Amino acid sequence: MHSPETKNSPPSDSMMEGIAVAFDHVSVCIDGVSILEDVSASSPHGGCTAVIGPNGAGKTTLLMALLGHIPFAGRIRIGSREENMKSRIGYVPQRLQFDRGLPMTVCDFMVMGLQRRPLWLGTKRSNRIRARELLSAVRGEALEDRMLGVLSGGEMQRVMLALALAQEPLLLILDEPASGVDVQGGQLFCELLERLRREHGFTQLMVSHDLATVTHHATHVIMLNRRIVAEGPPREVLTPANLGAVFGMHMGLADAQALSDGQSACTCARCGGEVTHA
Q: How far apart are CA 276 and CA 278, in angstroms?
């Protein structure tokens, strides 16, 4: 684990084999305001890395830098073969801004993301079949003919996840995936994401404010507050001292029984506490 007292050392090129993403001294300054300062951290290949921190800590900014949406100083390396992995990144945003009165079904929306030509020029049968397959993968078959504008937060997350899977991603990035999702939506993590990660072998990198989700599902944690506060397995990072320092005393508790030691496993009761991954 990297603590506030220990300077993070970015992995060398020879060490990138087991690492999906490496942030090397990344800094972001927008309109003269420093958002991220000298961030060095990594996301191990095949696991679920959670980026946590208080509001304004720069969590989403780190994802935007990774996706190339904002300029940054430093270096971000993606996998050991950077040029191949960059084209296979799936992204599920926190929310999708669109006109909810738009007369578009979920299937239309999916097909629009699978083809280059506009919908009014027609759609290929193969794209509609692919859209149905992707919805089925996230247990969203029943959403196919629903209007996009009437979906709940949890249903929309499933649709966005299905579209992200179309990339056959090696790296799946999620920004606050539990935001706006009800308690039952936790199934998205416990059953769906765990199963998909196990079956497809992608690396999951997510920003989350939900410490319960992080406690049960993350295999690696990056604690951020403009700079790296701590990094490592959940059991080493989510300590009362670290949580209290970053979130305040009322957040200084975590379920020690549920904390992962860095192995790729779901520890929640819904998954039986023993779903391990190769």
A: 7
Give the three-state DSSP class for 64.
helix
Which residues are CB-neighbours of 177 under 8 A, at least 6 positions away?
A: 92, 94, 157, 161, 188, 189, 193, 206, 208
| Residue 211, phi then psi, degrees to nearest 5 | -65, -25
**15-46: b or e for each residue (b if 16 or more CB lie within 10 Å)?**
ebeebbbbbbebbbeeeeeebbbbbbbbbbbb
**246-268 as b/e, with b when 16 or more CB fall inside 10 Å?**
bbeeeebebeeebbbebebbbbb
pTM of the model: 0.81
Each as own residue / partner, the long-range contacts of residues 26-30 (CB below 8 Å, 24 or more positions apart, any chain) are 26/62, 26/65, 26/72, 26/73, 26/74, 26/75, 26/76, 27/72, 27/73, 27/74, 28/58, 28/61, 28/62, 28/65, 28/70, 28/71, 28/72, 28/73, 29/73, 30/70
What's the whole-number mean pLDDT along residues 216-232?
Answer: 94
For residue range 98-116, list pLDDT tens digits in order.
777 788 899 988 888 887 7
